[in-house]
């Protein structure tokens, strides 16, 4: 009954969206069944969605001038041929979106000419720049009409090595007229090679412009700055640029360093800068702020990790007002025009690899000493989730405190292999992240062939078991079958704090085949991403076995919603024992994967993520979800196909369409196993 109600609720929620837009799939349906993709686009009208259900190379430049969404169909990764581009012109009210394409050598260019436009460019990959040096993603506003934008999760390989007086950025937003703009540039991965290449550029002139630049990884940049924010650069200007620059990692390509890391300047008008929890290493200037005469400056520079830069902080203000600074870690460089404020740290941050690997080692003086309250306030003001620069939880540990810098210390991923002999239903974990750490409740995902090794199935229900006598975590086969030799599991050991708790199945929360979860921040939050692992021991020390496959779903019917753990084979949920639960807000590295006809092959569905693709050493973490009303009643694991990671049914059953999976990618583990974020041997 609950499953039926869940499905009906989803249908009701989806109906308005389906009624307001026509989905045109190329090259498979209706008027888009044959002919060019551009012809399919030309036939679309205001509000349509054009989906590309093809992995082939498309030898066309694409353009549109009405509000529509041009995107890859679920499970597909279309590629645009060399020197072909995608352009859009926003001329009337509506949404203009480009999502999921790979350009071999080209760019995406959107012009806002009229109307109240919402522009979205997401999950676009550009493999090489064009010879003339245009930005690979560019948004240009030349109207007084309102503009909003979302430019995120893009992967850009840019280069420019010639000085010609212009700023050549991989990603740029240029805003020249009066009126208002607001937007977000987030979770992009940018390599900006060459002596005169910048990473992210935002220029505002006469408008009231608010931008949030967060969670980007930028490598490279020139004297213009890897993240460059400019107010009043076009012949003066009386506007105000409000910039939230949060959780970015900036590392230069060029050595010796001559690049700015983060640069913010007011040439006319006003600049309000909130630069929080960024990490900049190995640059000429870590954070550089400039205000010309007649301008107004305000804001705060706090919680930034600035190490190994020639100038960690540089400040020049000839205008009115000023920017405060506090709680920054400044190491291995000097400051100019500014005195480090309260809470400054001047010790070695103990990075795992300077300047290339920006994560913290144990014992770093940056751990838990940020101004957590100030960061919380800035995130709330900017409308940003409580995440770090890797898209995982920001506030961790017993005190839920934040670290200085973009990347939070505390979560760990490791591979566990069972050993046989001795043959046992227990397999003891041995890693510093979980040994004697009862609050680091591990999440497990079966791994068929780690590092591309020989595959091994294990079609059994496996739980996590805390032994209070030995203070060690073990894995336990719930059906009491002894572990085979060398059964493999990806283990995610989250630090304690909000988002990590033990749920006990009791009479008060068990109903039918479900048990209701409850936690502050999780209740009434349908977007949360969860990992759940069975914990067979209840607080009284009694072991309760549960051999049924399970997953999570969110349900709201006539009131506040809740998350549930459900038996996916629809058997009754028993009382006793419980689950280790990890949850967080969604991000590029914490997302929901949908199995579709485009990504299903037999008993598995292919994942598509830049930190996983082509990297056998990655360790993805997965929990089943039933958000689409599809219950995949099978034990699952992950396996590497030779180029992609996938989720598979251990018993060989066909993967159903619309099965869902919550996926966590530990960016630190992916980085350190193959430096897939900046893979050029910089360290």
Structure description:
This protein is mainly β and about 675 residues long. Among the domains are: about 410-495, no CATH class; about 500-585, no CATH class. The longest helix has 19 residues, at about 1-20. The chain is globular. It starts with a helix and ends in a 9-residue tail after the last helix.
Note the overall shape.
Answer: globular
Distance from first to last alpha carbon: 57 Å
Class by helix and strand content?
mainly beta
CA radius of gyration is 25 Å
Our count of helices gives 4
- Number of beta strands: 57
Arithmetic mean pLDDT? 92
Low-pLDDT segments: 1-19, 676-683
Strand content: 35-45%
> How helical, in percent, are the residues?
under 10%
Largest β sheet strand count, sense and barrel closure: 13 strands, parallel
Q: What's the short story on this structure?
A:
The protein is mainly beta and 683 residues long. It is built from four helices and 57 strands.
């Amino acid at each position: 009954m609950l499953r039926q109600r869940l499905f009906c609720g989803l249908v009701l929620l989806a109906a308005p969206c389906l009624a307001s837009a026509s989905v045109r799939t190329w090259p498979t349906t209706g008027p888009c069944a044959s002919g060019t993709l551009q012809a399919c686009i030309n036939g679309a009208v205001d509000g349509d969605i054009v989906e590309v259900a093809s992995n082939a190379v498309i030898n066309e430049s694409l353009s549109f001038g009405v509000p529509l969404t041009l995107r890859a169909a679920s499970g597909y990764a279309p590629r645009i041929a060399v020197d072909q581009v995608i352009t859009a012109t926003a001329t009337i009210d509506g949404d203009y979106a480009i999502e999921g394409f790979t350009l071999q050598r080209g760019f995406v260019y959107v012009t806002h000419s009229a109307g109240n436009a919402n522009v979205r460019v997401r999950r676009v990959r550009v493999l090489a720049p064009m010879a003339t040096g245009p930005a690979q993603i560019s948004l240009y506003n030349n109207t007084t009409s309102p503009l909003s934008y979302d430019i995120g999760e893009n992967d850009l390989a840019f280069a420019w090595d010639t000085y010609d007086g212009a700023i050549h950025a991989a990603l740029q937003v240029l805003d020249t007229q009066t009126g208002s703009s607001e937007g977000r540039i987030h979770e992009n991965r940018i390599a900006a090679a060459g002596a005169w290449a910048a990473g992210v550029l935002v220029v505002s002139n006469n408008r009231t412009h608010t931008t949030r630049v967060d969670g980007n990884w930028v490598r490279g940049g020139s004297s213009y700055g890897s993240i460059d924010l400019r107010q009043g650069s076009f012949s003066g200007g009386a506007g105000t640029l409000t910039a939230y620059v949060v959780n970015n990692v900036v590392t230069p390509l060029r050595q010796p360093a001559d690049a700015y890391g983060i640069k913010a300047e007011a040439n006319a008008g006003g600049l309000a800068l909130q630069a929080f929890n960024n990490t900049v290493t190995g640059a000429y200037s870590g954070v550089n702020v400039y205000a010309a005469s007649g301008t107004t400056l305000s804001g705060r520079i706090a919680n930034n990790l600035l190490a190994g830069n020639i100038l960690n902080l540089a400040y020049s203000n000839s205008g009115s007002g000023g920017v405060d600074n506090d709680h920054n870690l400044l190491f291995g460089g000097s400051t100019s025009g500014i005195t480090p404020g309260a809470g400054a740290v001047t010790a070695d941050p103990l990075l795992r690899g300077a300047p290339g690997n920006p994560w913290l080692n144990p014992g770093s003086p940056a751990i838990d000493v940020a101004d957590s309250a100030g960061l919380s306030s800035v995130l709330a003001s900017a409308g940003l989730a409580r995440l770090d620069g890797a898209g995982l939880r920001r506030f961790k540990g017993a005190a839920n405190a934040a670290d200085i810098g973009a990347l939070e210390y505390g979560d760990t991923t490791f591979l566990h292999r069972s050993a046989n002999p001795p043959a046992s239903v227990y397999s003891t974990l041995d890693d510093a992240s979980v040994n004697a750490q009862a609050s680091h409740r591990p999440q497990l995902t079966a791994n068929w062939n780690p590092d591309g090794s020989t595959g091994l199935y294990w079609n059994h229900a496996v739980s996590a078991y805390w032994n209070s006598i030995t203070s060690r975590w073990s894995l336990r086969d719930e059906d009491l079958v002894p572990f085979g030799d060398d059964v493999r599991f990806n283990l995610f050991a989250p630090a304690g704090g909000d988002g990590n708790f033990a749920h006990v199945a009791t009479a008060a929360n068990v109903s039918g085949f479900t048990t209701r979860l409850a936690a502050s921040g999780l209740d009434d939050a349908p977007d949360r991403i969860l990992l759940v692992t069975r914990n067979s021991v209840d607080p009284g020390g009694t072991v309760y076995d549960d051999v049924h496959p399970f997953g999570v779903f969110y349900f709201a019917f006539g009131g506040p919603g809740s998350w549930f753990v459900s038996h996916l084979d629809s058997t009754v949920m028993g009382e006793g024992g419980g689950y280790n639960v990890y949850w967080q807000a969604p991000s590029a590295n914490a997302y929901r994967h949908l199995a579709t006809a485009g990504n299903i092959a037999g008993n598995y569905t292919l994942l598509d993520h830049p930190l996983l693709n082509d990297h056998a050493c990655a360790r993805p973490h997965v929990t089943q979800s039933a958000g689409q009303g599809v219950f995949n009643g099978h034990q699952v694991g992950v396996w590497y196909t030779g180029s992609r990671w996938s989720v598979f049914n251990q018993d060989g059953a066909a993967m159903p369409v619309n099965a869902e999976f919550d996926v966590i990618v530990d960016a630190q583990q992916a980085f350190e196993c193959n430096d897939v974020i900046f893979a050029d041997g910089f360290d």
